Structures are given as structure tokens and as C-alpha cells.
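Input (structure):
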């Protein structure tokens, strides 16, 4: 069990938690912008791997659903696909984050399944970006 200390500063009305000898854990910044009475959390470190795995699973699922919805909108819309290259760059960044930050919390089979989904989305986005570049004559010389 790790030791921690909860300190409330009455001058600036903040609570600070100091954790000793904790080099591991998953660091999270909550993105919830709903106002509510009570304590506001700006940063949090999840120490138990089971809880960290749940949070990571939700984050990954949300991100993959976002990429799939974008891919579906590209399939429906036959206009220019300029944003496909931007989404492809973001997808490659997400893939690196999977391998660097999330791999220690996920099993090898789960990571392989997620990487397979990401590579499928990546191939579809590459096709869309390439067809758009061919339409505008990218790489043609005089």
C-alpha cells in the first residue's frame, strides 16, 4: 500500500496530495467541463493497474470510434479529402502513443487487436489521401 498525504491550503482553497515513492501509475487529466459543487481535480494518478486498464480501454474505444466515424463521413462525402492527410497524421501519433504509453497496461492479444483495427483505418485513410493527391495532380512536372 502506498502512502500519501492530503493537504488543504486554506489560503488559495486547494487540496494537494503528495505521493511518496510512486514512480508508476497512469497519469490522467480530467476533461470534464461540467460545473459542479465540490472538489475540482486537475490531475490524477491511477495506481491500480485494473482501474488504469479500464480508463485506457474507454479512451482507446472513444478514439477509434472517432476515426471510424470520420472514415464513414469520407465514404459518404465525395468532395475533396484534404483533411484525410491531417487525420492520418493524428492516427499515426495515436498509434505511437498506443505502443509507448498504453502497451504496459494492455495484454499482447488486446494490443494486437487494437493495432489491427488502427492499421485498417490507416490503410483506408492512405487510400483516400492518395486518391485526392492524384486528383489535384500532386507530383506532376511540366
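Output (sequence):
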Amino acid at each position: 500500500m502506498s502512502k500519501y498525504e492530503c493537504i488543504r491550503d486554506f489560503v488559495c482553497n486547494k487540496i494537494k496530495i503528495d505521493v511518496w515513492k510512486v514512480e508508476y501509475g497512469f497519469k490522467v487529466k480530467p476533461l470534464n467541463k461540467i460545473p459542479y459543487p465540490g472538489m475540482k481535480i486537475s490531475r490524477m494518478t491511477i495506481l491500480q493497474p485494473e482501474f488504469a486498464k479500464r480508463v485506457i480501454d474507454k479512451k482507446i474505444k472513444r478514439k477509434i470510434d472517432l476515426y471510424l466515424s470520420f472514415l464513414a463521413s469520407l465514404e459518404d462525402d465525395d468532395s475533396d479529402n484534404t483533411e484525410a492527410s491531417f487525420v492520418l497524421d493524428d492516427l499515426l501519433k495515436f498509434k505511437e502513443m498506443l505502443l509507448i504509453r498504453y502497451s504496459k497496461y494492455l495484454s499482447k492479444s488486446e494490443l494486437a487487436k487494437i493495432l489491427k483495427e488502427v492499421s485498417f483505418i490507416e490503410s483506408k485513410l492512405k487510400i483516400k489521401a492518395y486518391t485526392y493527391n492524384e486528383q489535384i495532380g500532386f507530383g506532376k512536372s511540366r
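Notes: The first strand starts at residue 4 and ends at 9. Residues 81 and 110 are 31 Å apart (CA to CA).
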